[in-house]
Amino acid sequence: MLARQALRSLSSHSRLFSSSSARQTKVAVLGAGGGIGQPLSLLLKTDPLVSSLSLYDIRGAPGVAADVSHIDTASEVTGYAADKLDEALDGVKVVVIPAGVPRKPGMTRDDLFNTNASIVRDLAAAVGRVSPEAHILVISNPVNSTVPIVASVLEQAGVFDPRRLFGVTTLDVVRAARFLSGITGASPSETPVTVVGGHSGVTIVPLLSQSAHGKSVTGEPLGQIVHRIQYGGDEVVKAKDGAGSATLSMAYAGAKFTHALLRGLNGEKGVITPTFVKSDLYASQGIDFFSSNVELGVNGVEKIHPVGPISAEEQKLLDAALPELKKNIEKGKAFVAQS
Ligand SMILES: NC(=O)c1ccc[n+]([C@@H]2O[C@H](COP(=O)([O-])OP(=O)(O)OC[C@H]3O[C@@H](n4cnc5c(N)ncnc54)[C@H](O)[C@@H]3O)[C@@H](O)[C@H]2O)c1
């Protein structure tokens, strides 16, 4: 009873999903049996813009699907076993990918490259073959490299459309709003922060100077909150003590970004959020993927917003982010070129 009430309130009242519902959409989760995949599937089941959920994993997706399918929302849910990837992708409009291994204490996101690069490459190839027009949302780390991997695979297949590929950096945005709220005492809904760059350590660049509440934070507290936004994931990895990285907050962030994209795809105007996409902003420096505010529309990426006015401290952060980002992107591209 309580759980049912909680879910109702989640789908109808929370900030996660707006109640407008128009065209409905088939969404696939690849890695649905995992720590992120399970709660993400649950949240997507409660999204009124999702008409059908296709859950795939090399382990456990049919079980997750059977469980989630009993939730009393309108969408259909189907689970697919390891050998049913093509069936899982049939007719999907949006594919969310949280497949891969998470960090253990002491690891950076880049340490995951060796395992996750090939997982993401193979899943991207399947999407390119079965549903080449699908929008692909990459959660698997290291996002700074896995997104270029997906782009290169789709390019090789001749089906890459940069408007339909997104690295999910929403957790950095969610953390920034939450942490700033903790300092200022305002509600997180009043403390949104644009986060640009990439999704790991120094490549995460929060633009607090652009936030009404954020610009009041200066001196040591500013340095502390920036560090916390950049390394918030480490707090979770450490606290979980070997059992993985952020899963619940990531599922929330993944569902939030998916919902924003679905609103854009349904024709809603003015849906703007940071995401890591193919971008011209720093392409002249050899960095052709970058996260900044992006307007989402019927075709996916509608407009990439520039970084905008930033403080001298933020310029320093950006200067530190760009070379690391460049390395991460090149590593992803080189992996596909050598595959
Ligand atoms: N973008 C972000 O902000 C963010 C935040 C947290 C975690 N992550 C990343 O998300 C990924 C998943 O994390 P998790 O905690 O859910 O890990 P997990 O190990 O709990 O789950 C991963 C799932 O992927 C599945 N999988 C592995 N290979 C697969 C394949 N080829 N096809 C389909 N499924 C496959 C596994 O069976 C498992 O169920 C990790 O790479 C982690 O680093 C990203």
Automatic annotation (TrEMBL):
PROSITE patterns: MDH. InterPro entries: L-lactate/malate_DH, Lactate/malate_DH_C, Lactate/malate_DH_N, Lactate_DH/Glyco_Ohase_4_C, Malate_DH_AS, Malate_DH_type1, NAD(P)-bd_dom_sf. One of its GO terms (biological process) is tricarboxylic acid cycle. One of its GO terms (molecular function) is L-malate dehydrogenase (NAD+) activity. One of its GO terms (cellular component) is mitochondrion. The keyword Lipid metabolism does not apply. The keyword NAD applies. It catalyses: (S)-malate + NAD(+) = oxaloacetate + NADH + H(+). The active site is at residue 199. NAD(+) binds at residues 31-37, 57, 116, 139-141, 250. Its EC number is 1.1.1.37. Residues 169-336 form the Lactate/malate dehydrogenase C-terminal domain. Substrate binds at residues 103, 109, 141, 175. Keywords: NAD, Oxidoreductase, Tricarboxylic acid cycle. It holds the Pfam family Ldh_1_C. It is an enzyme of class 1 (oxidoreductase). Belongs to the LDH/MDH superfamily. MDH type 1 family. Homodimer. This is Malate dehydrogenase. It comes from Rickenella mellea. The lineage of its organism: Eukaryota, Fungi, Dikarya, Basidiomycota, Agaricomycotina.
